[in-house]
Design goal:
2 domains; mainly alpha; 8 helices
Amino acid sequence: MTLDATPAVSRDFGRATTMIGAFSRRVVVAPLPKWTVDGRAVTLLVAFAGAVVVRAALAGPSGARSVSAGLTFAAVLAALTVACRAKPRLSPRIIAIGIGVGAVLVAPAALHLGVRASLPAGAFPTWALLTAVVAGAEEAFLRGALFDAVQRRHSADAAIVVGAVAFAALHVPLYGWHVLPLDFAVGLVLGATRLVAGTWTAPAIAHIGADFAGWWLL
């Protein structure tokens, strides 16, 4: 007696076809979370680009020396940071990390250039105040609000890179394209500092400290 296996094979084939079809629809329809566009991050980047353009327009030939342009830029970044609730945090560990990273950023210039012979010390307090406000606002936004938005949707690595690109780009209208590689590298270091410390306050301390040292070295 011969058994006909055709009905069983047909059923198995039909079941397999149904499963493959369902899997294909799931793969095609379901988006890949890693590559979805994050509306908040895009909005922050657009607002940041607008703030950079406004600063460059207000500064004109004065560039980074323009007090009004710098303060306007800092005010916009601070407002965005507050809106995103990227609050500062302080502790002895965070302060130590910030000071240590700042020293690392300054070390190459200090070893290569040394302290300048003529120091315009009288102008330093006003410049230092403006620098602290602007650099602090930059870090609050880039390593605070923007970092959190990108990390939430993608990863910490992506947040570090995006922040570094934005950090490098913001200096181009003020100093020229030649600063892009160095500022990108510094941005990576500040982003890594944010990741290690867990707050934007540490890279802010490092950034401000390095800028202060730059007054005497560059």
